[in-house]
């Protein structure tokens, strides 16, 4: 992961945390909704192609951005809360997956 992408993820993470706590949102709701993006894995129950498509949409910034826009239209704070949690989950997942990919490349190089 390049430095620019790391900086981007750090910026999204810090911004989402600051906004989340500025609004005084609940830690309990944060913990409850933290796994919501992982529900997109249920698409794999249908088949691989649909599962991959649904999972990739659920793990992109598209859904939380749309939820944020919907919040701006109707003003329901729960929508903003869910969107911020979704952003945080995505940043964490991308960082975690980067570490796995990086360790895979390191281990392959050492075996060759």
Question: Average pLDDT value?
Answer: 82
Number of strand segments = 0
Order of SSEs: HHHHH
Radius of gyration: 16 Å
**How many distinct folded domains?**
1
Strand percentage lies at under 5%
Task: Give the assembly state of these chains.
Answer: single chain
Bulk shape: globular
Helix amount: over 70%
Low-confidence blocks of residues: 100-108
* Distance separating the two termini: 22 Å
Alpha-beta classification:
mainly alpha
Describe the protein in words.
With 112 residues, the protein is mainly alpha-helical. The chain has one domain. 77% of the residues lie in helices and 0% in strands. The protein contains five helices and no strands.
How would you sum up this structure in a few lines?
77% of the residues lie in helices and 0% in strands. It has 112 residues and is mainly α.
What order do the helices and strands come in, and which of them pair?
Blueprint: H1 3-22, H2 27-33, H3 48-58, H4 62-74, H5 77-111
Give structural attributes:
77% helix; 112 residues; mainly alpha; globular; 5 helices
